[in-house]
Amino acid sequence: MNSPNARPITNDPGDSEARSWLPLHVRGDAQAFGRLMNAYRGFVMTLLWRYGVDPASRDDLFQDVFMKIHQSAASYQPSQALRPWLATITLNTLRNHRRKQYRRSRVYALLFSKTKHEYLDKQNPGADQVLEHDSTATWLEDQIAKLPDRQREVLVLSTMNGLSMKDIARVVAIPENTVKTRLRRARLALAEAISRREAVEN
Predict the structure, then answer these.
(1) Under a CB-based contact definition with an 8 Å cutoff, are residues 61 and 98 in contact?
(2) Is this structure's pTM higher than 0.85?
């Protein structure tokens, strides 16, 4: 499964130029906001995809995110890193959406495919175990969905290239040490769940 409209989440050279677009938009440049939407559509859509937003809701949420960006444009300072600022608005918009309705997606299994494969590799799977992959992905999906929201947030953000611990702290508006603590607890919870499953299967 590939993320729709996704671009690699990296700090491309265009970010330095893009930092001027919101101030230009605030000053009345009719094209600046369109350039921002076109340049960062992939970034925002990939965030929504990786947070498990279903395809039917993704476009509407994308529009909501950029409406919030438009409303918050005057608060943006060109000295700020643009991607973490956009990610903060995206995450806040998604939180508001999930207060109304939370829909779980199989994307979580894809986000943690490395964990899935490591787990299956421990079992030394052969051809006869291929059919078990889907059930394992579903099981991991369930475990991730059971994590507290705060732990799941940082776990998802940590899987994405381009957002450091420092940037995650800015996005979630918590100290960097708190990010590390939540991430450690999330990973520990998954590791313990895997160990319990192994004990039952063995």
Answers:
(1) no
(2) no
CB count in 10 Å sphere of residue 152: 18
The 3-state DSSP class for residue 7 equals coil
Residue 83 above 80 pLDDT?
yes
In 3D space, the residue among 67, 40, 46, 72 whose CA is nearest the CA of residue 58 turns out to be: 46
Burial of 62 (C-beta count, 10 Å sphere; 0-12/13-18/19+):
buried
Contact 43, 89 (CB under 8 A): no
Residue 162: strand, helix, or coil: coil
Q: Which DSSP string do the residues of 10-63 spell out, in sequence order?
A: S--THHHHHTTHHHHHHTT-TTHHHHHHHHHHHHHHHHHHHTT--HHHHHHHHH
Structural domains in the chain, CATH included, are 14-100 (1.10.1740.10), 107-201 (1.10.10.10)
Contact 144/112 with Cβ under 8 angstroms?
Answer: yes
161 pLDDT tier (thresholds 50, 70, 90): very low
